[in-house]
Amino acid sequence: MLGREFVERFEQFAPQSWAEPWDVPGLQLGDLEAPIHKILVTLDVRPETVQEALDVGADFIFAHHPAMFHPAKTLDLSVPQNQMYATILAHHLTVYAAHTNLDSAPGGMNDWLAAALGLQDCTGLVPSHGQTATTAVTMGRIGNLARPTTVQAFAEHCRQVFHVAGLRLISHRPTAPVTRVAVLGGSGSEFYTAAVAQGADVYVTGDVSYHPAQDMLAAGLSVVDPGHHIESICEPRLTQLFTTWAAENDWPVTVQATKLNTDPFTFL
Length: 268
Hints:
By secondary structure, the chain is α/β, with parallel strands linked by helices. It contains nine helices and eleven strands. It has helices spanning 3-13, 47-56, 80-90, 100-104, 109-117, 151-161, 192-197, 210-218, 234-249; strands at residues 26-29, 38-42, 60-63, 94-97, 120-127, 138-150, 168-170, 177-187, 202-206, 222-225, 254-257. The protein has a six-stranded mixed β-sheet. The model has no long low-confidence stretch (mean pLDDT 97). Pfam families: DUF34_NIF3.
């Protein structure tokens, strides 16, 4: 089959037009008219990911984070990112990314994160600004826990669920009760007021910086920051989804999730 055929099926699930206006999803490098036989699913496209694709015989890399989020200003191959692009093209790999369109899609990234946390009766947290997004297409989720817990205990639950060595807890009330939780994968600091407005006891998101954390505390909100890499939950989920589609449509392709950990941070 052609890469284009696979992408057409995926974009029935999460169209590019659902992405936020600043985003750059879709074809990153390569040729969608090229035939594909093996898909490597990954959160990030890094030099080691590209080498993994070559080692396992993949000809299509499906990523969550766009490989070319920041445009190349030169093609100086002494720059590792540029050399990665050159390797991709030299080996006729195709790289495609689904970013905020996958985040907001019903049954996509933020539903996977909410399910991992055990949230029930979930609704959308923030309206999507995607060009063709409907009210069913929303960034983040907010829902209820099956049983009340405390801020501290819930933070520990997040650490275990997302398999992280450490996380940051932003709270003046670690023993306060928690029944309602908001989650937004990636960098969601700017949306904390929506979590407050919808009655969240705790907001789970990544990349919280110093001054927004102070504002969150002033608003009386507890926040758990388990990092950006928790979005790697997409790797097994997408692999399962694509494998199901391949069986349903008799596609001559195999699908494999990356075995690499691309989280740049180590907790000491």
